[in-house]
């Protein structure tokens, strides 16, 4: 598989992302900032407060707090709702970030029990929530559901789940790591989506392409409590400004590009689906991301992709994940890099790929 | 008290610190870094691994892990030792950072019981440890003890406590937030001090003057476990390099200045102690820091300091903390800023202060 990675690293262009994650990303964000601007100090000061207010307004919530990571922000959100409901139980998708990527932080730190809703290969629907057999303090919905290619429930379903939760006094939390990325599909503002939820987390290094960091938004009491927990976690650093300044810079640069990323994702998915033994999930993307699946073994596909990448100077992927039944897959998230490639070069790339997959 | 802060902000020079905590601190650290240098990714990559190795070597420990904060690093260290000893109890000073500045994170997250050793106004001595009436998993020593002006036990005492803990199978953890700052007094290397401890934390934004961040060092098994907990806390950010690059830059710039800071601290403390109704704790500093105490009320001292600061263009302090019995105090930590002030200007400053305090 090193051959695939090496060929990817040599490419001039890439289908995914916003370019390499190198130090220039931070240097660019800082180049027009006055050196005299004062640091935030342990969660206070203009740099952090102004940005928190900007995000609170975007998300239509009363207040917001900047966090070094979404992992920290979301565990804390669920803990606060469990404390409020005096019930240590939450529900989320079986492939939630909290379930598979956080070394069981939620359980080890907060001793919160989790109910896994829905089958692994589909999103949570209203019936899953209605048929819950146990009381829960909070339901977490991830939009889009990243681990299954970025799938979404309909907005109507979201509204129904929200109304049901309100009726049953279940707190509804949005894992909106990629919230801005789904707005073009829903044709809604961030505030309109967030209005269905009691609390919201959004990331700054997915579609926005910042360095790291996240925001948690909700009402004033919730956010005050989240700041106490942020301090307990050691997340209220003396200076968070390297992440805040870059989040703000790339937010201003890319928040309005999400429709372009979404359109490119739809076009690329169609091109992949036109190749023999390749299909995408979702078939038609509903955000800037999707998963590409190959109905052939990893070694064969790695060799084909390496050849196609090198011939066209366009990186498709640096890795493949083995799947059951002699197949493999990779994830694609569209950002600025794809927009920089001329259409005829992309057509040529897929001409090569179709030819190799014949 | 705004008058004191305002006069401080107007000063050209300052006795404390390394200069303002503004964005130029980060910009300076990045200016000679190649923009093509790749980010660390979730705790991996050259940037983070090389720096961790450099710090492991400095501290004479097998391995080290970079953390966004000392709060996170130290709670995790104590948790690991408690798990190892199957005993949820640790001991530390009543004014330990964990006891008074972390919103009870250790207790709320890990349910670890704490025994407060020694009186508030002195450091922990061997007798305090020997006379412990309960078993503990771990003893935490903070060198220097910041909240009492940065006091230290003798190195001989440290050796005795270390030997006792080893004999009794008590893990010994070093809160070395200001570890480098005490080496000139002890006349030891960092590794020689750390050799007495099972695990060590050091900060990068005290004497070193970086942006934020900390390192935890210990044996391989301990550090592997600390990385699992770092992930659970949401501390293994996709990119920690803004803190790592600046920690490395300011470490190289200032690690060898600690003796100068220490000497300046001793000189300044002497000048303060020569003024009527002013004394320092410790009387003779043992690091770059000490506390300045005034035997008069806060309002009177604020007015005097504001006048002296404005007349001499040298900032002494921006705040005063009220103390029992009509007295007040502030903390002074010496860094580059003090070294930049000509000796005759400092003499003039203290001539004014002595005159005003007569």
Automatic annotation (TrEMBL), chains A, B:
Presence of the UniProt keyword Glycoprotein in the record? no
Domain Aromatic amino acid beta-eliminating lyase/threonine aldolase: from-to ranges: 40-277
Q: Which domain of life is it from?
A: Bacteria
Leader sequence segment: none
**Alphabetized Pfam families for the sequence:** Beta_elim_lyase
- Which keywords, in A-to-Z order, does the entry hold? Pyridoxal phosphate
- What cofactor is needed? pyridoxal 5'-phosphate
- Do you know which SUPFAM superfamilies this protein is assigned to? PLP-dependent transferases
Family, according to the entry, reads as follows: Belongs to the threonine aldolase family.
What is the protein name for this chain? Answer: Low specificity L-threonine aldolase
Q: What organism does this protein naturally occur in? A: Psychrobacillus faecigallinarum
